[in-house]
Design brief:
The structure is a homodimer of 168-residue chains. Chain A is mainly alpha-helical. Chain A contains seven helices and three strands. Chain A has helices at 18-45, 50-61, 67-74, 78-90, 112-136, 138-151, 154-166, and strands at residues 65-66, 94-98, 106-110. In chain A, α1 (18-45) packs antiparallel against α5 and α2 (50-61) crosses α5 (112-136). Chain A is globular and about 55 Å long. Chains A and B meet through α1, α2, α5, α6 and α7 of A and α1, α2, α5, α6 and α7 of B. The first copy, chain A, binds a DNA duplex (30 and 30 nucleotides) through residues 47-51, 66-68, 76-80, 82-84, 86, 99, 102-106.
DNA sequence: CTAGTAATGTCAACAAGGCTGACATAAAAT
DNA sequence: ATTTTATGTCAGCCTTGTTGACATTACTAG
């Protein structure tokens, strides 16, 4: 398990040393910090946190989504999500409409103010992503996405793909 | 700022649509969950969390590192780190030695028990990384690392590179 | 129609892990 | 001799996660 060389089965599979894997692990750690840094700065001025950002992002992504659907995407408990949603609704950033077909469901939408905040947050995050993508070039970006997809849990991979394809 | 197409300045730079950037953002979000899932499971059985994992990882990476150095790497306050280190020392996973040259400094080392836990955690995390790397192939891995490096804050990039080169 | 199940909300309590501010100590540096 | 540095520690606060319990409403199956 603690081999230096992991697998020499294929042509160029001698690249999976523990050292390389560790570098990948550390790269994920440091990069995720950068990834969240800009929106975090914006949010800390308001009384919001990363959890609000995530909710806003996915409501914007799939307007009219139900609470249960959002729960699955975010992978938290309904109590956690509810606390966040309640403040967002109270502050007029999110609207929660009772479903017309199934009146138990709540469909979630961003208000104009919610859309404004979403744009500020994602502009900041996109700017960093854009700059990283531009520096790295198209082939690196393709590789980046391939590896990230392979790193997801199977269920999240399906969720990710579904979201990805809904946005064409 | 909300362009569909970001930059058509170069040969193949027409790939930076907002949609592509958003997919990158969501890929980071879902992949990071996968990235931390396995160690999190191990840790939740004990009374430890992700913060303990990070401390253990970097102490293992750079044995004898000082508290201050660890503080810079982890990017938290000394109070936060101290809470974590205290429990690790109390539980006999980390040893804190007073520096010989500068006696104000404490140098941190994993004990045998600490090394055992480190191995369990990193084996789990590496297994996922290895599988993702293998599925994606060497070129994708190179791209993955290039993009992640470009996404880091400049300071973290230096820290990352320093760590990377110290492990040759 | 009734019983069961599903979707949601809410209350309470708790824990991890961030944060700030204040203060203490020892040792190095000036 | 004074200041600065490295570290530890106490107290308190916040966000965001958790579990468990319970209520409401409404769809669904028998």
């Amino acid at each position: 398990m603690a081999d230096t060389r992991a697998s020499i089965s294929g042509e160029s599979l001698l690249f999976l040393t523990d050292e390389q894997l560790r570098q990948g692990i550390e790269a994920m750690f440091f990069a995720y910090r950068g990834f969240t840094a800009d929106p975090d700065r914006i949010l800390s001025d308001m009384s919001y946190g990363r959890a609000h950002h995530r909710a806003i992002h996915f409501i914007n992504r799939a307007p009219g989504t139900t609470v249960n659907n959002l729960l699955n995407i975010l992978g938290v408990t309904k109590q956690s999500l509810n606390r966040v949603l309640r403040t967002l609704v109270e502050d007029g950033l999110v609207e929660s409409r009772v479903g017309q077909s199934d009146k138990r469901e709540r469909h979630l939408f961003l208000t104009d103010a919610g859309g404004d905040l979403e744009r500020r947050l994602s502009d900041a995050q996109r700017a960093r992503m854009r700059s990283a993508f531009r520096d790295a070039g198209p082939e690196a970006v393709a590789g980046f996405r391939t590896v990230l997809e392979a790193m997801m849990d199977a269920e999240m991979q399906r969720t990710y793909t579904r979201l990805k394809e809904s946005g064409l």
